[in-house]
């Protein structure tokens, strides 16, 4: 059944899913982030984003 | 052996030695697609005419002694999120009705330049937002899910309807269908393979990578995708002396089907027999893996779809529309916490991966479930949705960006394939390929999925 056919059921499904997502994501509030910055993906060098020490270089990828 | 049954490595060798022509191989694969499609529905579009023209051109080049490399004349399928100029990128969605890609994605352009021949665009779970690909059937049992979201690509390769294919992976979407259909799937390091021209699900978690019959095949495709120099192909001797293989003592073997666990532990035993040293590892921050994955993926997916969610919501499938709309209330605080959790998780994984060279674990905790099943009840009474179960063991590699290679390690009592994933340090794909290749050489590879079995439906 589409959302058009039963808009009430669709709204209920969205609300239930949103509640479920909120309950899962709320676990992140337990963490002590200290000074950790967000790991945005605009980093140009993987090492500076990841903190992975001594990575193999991109040339050695394959 | 019929041409469509050849692995990429074998087909490439046969073409290079002029024992097989690209035309013969392409016709054989197109014929196989015709046979399998009514039963499996792996493809959105089969580009037969285009493929025949490209094969003829590849044949002319071969006759003139010009070989572009190991992908010369090799038929491939591309997940239908990947732009190819002049073709629709449907994302298996009505939202994309009438779409035409203006230019090639970077990966499509690189593969075409390497001589690969597009035979069609493969089905995805709509916009890659799901783990089953309901349009497509499992190559080994059409009553079971293909896995997703790159279900069409994995089924095509497993059944011989493509010599290799590309998928995308945001929470396991290459590795899950690869494991469920008994083929190899490689999610490379985040950023190694360009995603330009590939419809995103979640920018910070998306990866593009190969789905192939063998580990060596995956190495050949990865080389073409990265635009790198000659491949450091896996060590043919298969010797792993001194290599440290991390075996998780938590998380990866919890709530895992006993048959999956036994097959993966048996495979790890084979790595040890090849000289590897097994080292127990503790997977960090397991309580926050799902929260981080959802905290990143949900708002990014909803943000990407916001315009069409406003103008054409009814064109989405019900499940995907609900997920996208449910993401709207998430705020910047949720998203930033997930990004900061990712920073912490990457640091912890870096510490763990300093102690071992690879980690070996199940790809998914359960094999392909019957189509329509929505949840799994574990021995401890916990009920988990099928999608959550399939994502659970794959998500850490998406969050941290580390590479992960799924290889087939047998089949369960019902005949369904089981996958083991090998995870490594960023840009250590060569190590994963070496270990995966060494494992593969310890026993016979899974054959192509037989169409005869699927004809029982």
UniProtKB/TrEMBL annotation, chain A:
Protein name as it appears in the record: Uncharacterized protein
The organism of origin for this protein: Streptomyces orinoci
UniProtKB/TrEMBL annotation, chain B:
Domain Amidase: 24-433
InterPro entries recorded: Amidase (IPR000120), Amidase_CS (IPR020556), Amidase_dom (IPR023631), AS_sf (IPR036928)
PROSITE patterns cross-referenced by the UniProt entry: AMIDASES
Gene3D superfamilies: Amidase signature (AS) domain (3.90.1300.10)
SUPFAM superfamilies noted in UniProt: Amidase signature (AS) enzymes
Pfam families per the UniProt record, alphabetical: Amidase
Listed name of the protein: Amidase
Taxonomic lineage from the root: Bacteria, Bacillati, Actinomycetota, Actinomycetes, Kitasatosporales
């Amino acid at each position: 059944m589409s959302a058009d056919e039963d808009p009430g059921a669709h709204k209920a499904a969205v609300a239930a899913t949103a509640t479920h997502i909120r309950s899962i994501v709320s676990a992140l509030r337990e963490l002590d982030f200290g000074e950790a910055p967000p790991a945005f993906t605009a980093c140009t060098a993987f090492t500076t984003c990841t903190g992975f020490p001594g990575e193999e270089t991109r040339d050695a990828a394959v | 052996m019929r041409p469509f049954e050849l692995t990429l490595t074998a087909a490439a060798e046969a073409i290079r030695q002029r024992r097989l022509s690209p035309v013969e191989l392409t016709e054989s694969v197109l014929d196989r697609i015709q046979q399998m499609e009514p039963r499996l529905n792996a493809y959105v579009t089969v580009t037969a005419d285009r493929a025949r023209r490209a094969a003829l051109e590849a044949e002319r080049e071969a006759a003139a002694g010009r070989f572009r490399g190991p992908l010369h004349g090799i038929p491939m399928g591309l997940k239908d999120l990947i732009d190819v100029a002049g073709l629709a990128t449907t994302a298996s969605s009505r939202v994309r009705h009438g779409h035409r890609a203006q230019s090639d994605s970077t990966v499509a352009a690189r593969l075409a330049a390497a001589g690969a021949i597009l035979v069609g665009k493969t089905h995805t779970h709509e916009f890659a937002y799901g783990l089953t690909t309901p349009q497509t059937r499992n190559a080994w049992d059409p009553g079971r899910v293909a896995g997703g979201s790159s279900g069409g690509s994995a089924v095509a390769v497993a059944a011989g309807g493509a010599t290799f294919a590309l998928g995308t992976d945001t929470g396991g979407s290459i590795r899950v269908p690869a494991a469920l259909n008994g083929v190899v799937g490689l999610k490379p390091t985040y950023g190694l393979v360009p995603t330009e021209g590939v419809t995103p699900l979640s920018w910070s978690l998306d990866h593009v990578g190969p789905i192939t019959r063998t580990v060596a095949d995956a190495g050949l495709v990865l080389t073409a995708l990265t635009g790198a120099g000659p491949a450091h192909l896996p060590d043919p001797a298969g010797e792993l002396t001194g290599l440290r293989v991390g075996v998780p003592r938590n998380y990866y073997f919890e709530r895992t089907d006993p048959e999956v666990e036994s097959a993966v532990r048996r495979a790890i035993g084979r790595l040890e027999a090849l000289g590897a040293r097994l080292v127990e590892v503790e997977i960090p921050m397991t309580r926050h893996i799902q929260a981080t994955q959802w905290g990143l993926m949900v708002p990014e997916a909803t943000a990407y779809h916001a315009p069409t969610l406003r103008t054409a919501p009814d064109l989405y499938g019900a499940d995907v529309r609900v997920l996208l709309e449910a993401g709207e209330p998430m705020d910047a605080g949720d998203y930033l916490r997930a990004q900061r959790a990712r920073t912490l998780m990457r640091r912890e994984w870096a510490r763990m991966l300093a102690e071992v060279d690879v980690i070996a674990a199940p790809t998914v905790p359960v094999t392909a479930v019957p189509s329509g099943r929505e949840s799994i009840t574990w021995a401890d009474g916990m009920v988990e949705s099928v999608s959550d179960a399939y994502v659970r063991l794959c998500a850490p590699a998406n969050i941290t960006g580390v590479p992960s290679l799924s290889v087939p390690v047998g089949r369960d009592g019902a005949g369904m394939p089981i996958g083991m994933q090998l995870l490594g340090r960023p840009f250590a794909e060569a190590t994963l390929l070496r270990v995966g290749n060494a494992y593969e050489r310890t026993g016979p590879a899974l054959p192509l999925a037989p169409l005869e079995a699927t004809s029982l439906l």
